[in-house]
Amino acid sequence: MKILRLVPALSAAALAIGLASVSHAQSLPNPAPRTARPQFVILDTDIGDDIDDAFALALVLKSPEFYLLGITTAYGDTDLRWKLVDRFLDEQCIEGLPVVPGKPTDHQNVTTQAAYATPRFPRGCAGSFNLEEVMGKKGETLAREQKEHDAAGFILRKIRENPGQVTLIAIGPLNNVEAAIKRDPATFAKLKRVVMMGGSIYRGYDGRDGERRPPDAEWNISRDPAGLRALLASGVPVFMMPLDSTQIHLETKEREEIFAHGSQLTDQLTLLYHEWKAGTEGHPDAPTLFDPVAVAYAIRPDLCPATPLRLEVDDKGFTRPVDGAPNAQVCLKSDEKGFLELLLGRLTGDGAQ
To answer: Which of 266, 316, 285 has the alpha carbon at shortest distance from 61?
Structure first.
């Protein structure tokens, strides 16, 4: 069983009351005032390959609109991704937030940030507690889900605890989503919605010089086309941010503003960025922020207005619009300036979640 360190400001009694659905906000000082009830959110990510997942996770953690129920890792070496998320949280003394790996899958891509997942020095959050002792049976359940790589079971459990209230933000291949639907479609259908990055409707991956290209089999969907087919047939409202609206670049001025901020969170982004940049040949200096656009939509849907479309998904992962009743709300063009303002404001702001 994993031993987690306890933030000094929290007592074991307080944890026992609320740790079943701990928000990262409880682990940080001076929470920002909230004018409306936060959304219950689960983040499903394939963090560790491209760098945009790390920026998406950071945006989630800095958004008071969210009450983060947990994080699940998908595709490839899900244990390594789990360890990467665990360190990212630990470096900020965010304790008690469940992170559950999904089933590992075959993969050939390079995990550019693997070194980050294997830290070589102790970190400084004071105090410690045993998750099972504090949470009792729920701690045992979480420990089992982690050991068995049961991200799908974790997602379904959180839906049962909060029916009709959970937003699943999916920013990786849909392996965990597909597994949850197969296991218990009735429970999965009680999600409030899925907000996802994936697909390519009229615009494919841009060329090296920014030239527009025809639609592509986008990465997240091409890794598991059956996952998207299952999701679109699940009855859950789907809000999709495809390549058409997510190819927003973090250019030097904005990037250096984040890296120079000097917080625990932005320091982690700086380190992960340089591991990503060095990890594979051919990466441009300016990363493309595909995944944070999905997170931003869950906060500010006006930044990426959605169009109802009916999509079909072929076995290669192409997502083609066809005639018929809509099965997804799809953002075809985003407010890039507004998105970057939101991202920089959150990541460099001093207010905690």
So the answer is: 266
Distance CA 26, CA 67 (A): 10
- The verdict on pTM exceeding 0.70 is yes
Tokens of 187: 């429970």
Q: Which is more confidently placed, 350 or 69?
A: 69
**Average pLDDT of the residues in 196-204:** 98
Read off the DSSP letter of residue 164.
Answer: T
Q: Which domains does the chain have, with CATH numbers?
A: 3-348 (3.90.245.10)
Residue with tokens 């400084």: 124
Task: Give the confidence band of 209 by pLDDT, cuts at 50, 70, 90.
Answer: confident
Give the helix ranges, DSSP H, for 302-348: 336-348
* HEC secondary structure over 21-54: HCCHHHHCCCECCCCCCCEEEEEEECCCCCCHHH
With CA atoms as reference, report the closest residue to 313 among 191, 186, 218, 189. 218
The token pair that represents 143 in the structure block:
């420990």
Distances (CA, A) of 32 to 26, 40, 125, 339, 353: 11, 17, 22, 21, 6
Cα separations in angstroms, 237 against 48, 105, 179 = 28, 27, 18
Local structure of 121: helix, strand or coil? coil
pLDDT given at position 139? 84
* pLDDT tens per residue across span 133-149: 556 667 899 999 999 99
Render pLDDT for 300-345 as a digit per residue (tens, 0 to 9). 999 999 999 999 999 999 999 999 999 999 999 999 999 999 999 9
Which H or E run contains 154?
A: helix 151-161
CB neighbour list of residue 9: distance below 8 Å, 6 or more residues apart:
29
Which residues lie across from 195 on neighbouring strands? Answer: 169, 239
| pLDDT for the residue numbered 20 | 35
